[in-house]
Amino acid sequence: MNSELASIIESLIFTAESALSTDRICELLNEFDREDIKAALKDTVAYYHGRGGGFELVEVAGGWQFRTRPAFHSYITRHIKTRIAKFSQSALETLAIVAYRQPITRAEVEHLRGVDCGGVLKSLLEKHLVRILGKKDIPGRPLIYGTSKEFLEIFGLKDLKSLPTLREIQALDAVPQYERQEELQLEPEKAIPTESDLPFV
Amino acid sequence: MKAEAHGHRDEHLPLLDGFHEQYSVHLDKFDGPMDLLLHLIKKNELDICDISIAVITRQYLEFIKLMKDLNLEVAGDFLVMAATLLLIKSRQLLPLDEQEEPELEEDPRAELVRRLLEYQQYKEAGMVIGARALLGREVFVRNASEPVLAAAQSAEGPLEVSLFELVEAFRVLLQRIPLESFHDVAPGDSLSIADCINEILSLLQEQDTIQFDDLVREECTRERIIVTFLALLELSRLKLIRIFQGNGHGSIWFVPAVAADSSEVDLT
Fold first, then answer.
1. According to the model, what pLDDT value does residue B208 have?
2. B138 within some domain
3. What is the number of domains present in chain B?
4. What is the mean pLDDT of residues B192-199?
5. A153 and B CB contact within 8 Å
6. To bridge A128 with a disulfide, which of A39, A100, A150, B190 should be the other Cys (CB 3.0-4.6 Å)?
């Protein structure tokens, strides 16, 4: 990590209020080549990873951000109040169903879980983890739900594709085998370059 | 309902010793009828695709009976599942209609099994995502400061806080008080709720907003905190204050309801 470009990018990300997307960085640094910026980003990620320090450069919710390494959370919480309470099992289940099956209506979530989910969905909405995508064109025009950008940020996910697939989760306690994986439908504007788009991978 | 489960369990402890070991440990754990069914299947070491409806239904109904014995309100969802189980069992008992083509006759359990498998998948997925390093819990960013009031009042507007959040904040406060506080026998200045209400109202005249934490920071007696909490509830009941909360589980703030209204009037 010795190129000037990498240092410039580092300074941008360091001072940004929230995660900075590759597009935004390219826009800010229009005198540089997009490919060079991507390469410099990759170098910077590798540099911080290799350094093994207290924080790393990670890609979340389609942007780049410095985040502390999870191993040190018990020290950090000594001086920083945590904002997130523990999620209840029902909240996590509901969130998982919305994340994997979006767009989904409340009735569909309730059918899967076998219980009333109004309260859970409401609290997920209030926490901005779930958002209303619109109304479904069926009788009653029920609301359809999906996960939000905050969901990706809080759960440290690059995009919806980086959620572990249901098959992977099932395989956790089964014999590993190669199978076609189902991919989540991704909105086109949310599609962001993955690592494989970066050169020299 | 979950909190009730604990209370009643203690009361009935001697009566329900037998049950206690078998079931009550899990009372607060079940997250609906699907969850309970999965637990019963696992406990009986049954194959999820080939469950014995008779065994499961009996245990399921016993569980519902136990919930009733404990005076818990049995949620309708649990009863719907009970009815479904009984329906499946009765279908199994009925002789097949010979006029119908045999291949059309699906195993009556199939639909339930599909739902169970699907539910199990999402239950596990929920555990997997819940085990991730979460922002604000295990992972932090540079600007991890508490969102200030300005942020809370941003474009999205203040989040009205639920009673639950308020109670949670109260619980956190109570935890902060050291347990070993000695009783002060001196004729203390015992605080009435009315006094506390006046105090809060006068504070709100000086400053537009108060943070819940600030209200009870200096004097940390249990009595003080409880009276403050009751005063706040009373104030919100009388619609004299509005309560809202910053992002997620941020600080809880109070604003005078009247002032907020008059400022809106000024704008128009």
1. 75
2. no
3. 2
4. 83
5. yes
6. A150
Report if residue B139 sits inside a domain: no
Among chain B, residues having any CB pair with chain A shorter than 8 Å are 29, 31-34, 75, 77, 80-81, 115, 118-119, 121-130, 132-144, 146, 159, 162, 168, 247-250
Comparing CA positions, the residue from A112, A9, A25 lying closest to residue B117 is A112
Q: What is the DSSP letter of B255?
A: E
Q: Which of residues 112-151 of A touch B (CB under 8 A)?
A: 112-116, 123, 126-128
Q: A56 and A29: one domain?
A: yes
Q: Which of residues 34-93 of A touch B (CB under 8 A)?
A: 60, 65-70, 73, 76, 80-85, 87, 89-90, 92-93
Q: Do A169 and B124 touch (CB under 8 A)?
A: yes
- How far apart, in whole angstroms, are the C-alpha atoms of residue B48 and residue B42? 8
B124, B140, B146: residue with CB nearest A68: B140
The per-residue pLDDT for A173 is 54
A102: CATH: 1.10.10.10
pTM: 0.58
Are residue A49 and residue A93 in the same domain, yes or no? no
Given pLDDT bands bounded at 50, 70 and 90, which one contains residue A8? very high
B221 shares its domain with B110: no
Task: Quote the minimal CA–CA distance from A9 to chain B in Å.
Answer: 16
CA distance B74 to B66: 10
Interval A132-146 mean pLDDT: 88
Q: What is the pLDDT of residue B29?
A: 56
Choose one of A122, A139, A154: the last residue of a domain.
A154
What residues make up the domain containing B200?
A: 149-181+188-267
Q: Indicate whether B260 belongs to any domain.
A: yes
Average pLDDT, chain A: 81
CA distance A114 to B37: 11
Of B126, B136, B168, which has the smallest distance from its Cβ to A83's Cβ? B136
What ipTM goes with this model? 0.71
> DSSP assignment of A74-141, as one string?
HHHTTTS---PPPPPHHHHHHHHHHHHH-SEEHHHHHHHHSS--HHHHHHHHHTTSEEEEEE-SSTT-
Our count of domains for chain A comes to 2
Q: Which residue has the higher pLDDT, A42 or B198?
A: A42
Give me the domain span that covers residue A126: 89-154
Query: Between residues 93 and 112 of chain A, which touch chain B (CB distance below 8 Å)?
Result: 93-97, 99-100, 111-112
Q: How far apart are CA A30 and CA B203, in angstroms?
A: 52
Collapsing DSSP states into helix, strand and coil, what is residue A164?
coil
Stretch among A144-153, B15-24, B126-135 having the lowest mean pLDDT: B15-24
Indicate whether B193 and B90 sit together in one domain. Answer: no
Contact A115 B250 (CB under 8 A): no
CB-based contact A87:A74 (threshold 8 Å): no
What pLDDT is recorded for position A132?
86
Residue range B55-68, pLDDT digits in tens: 888 888 888 888 77
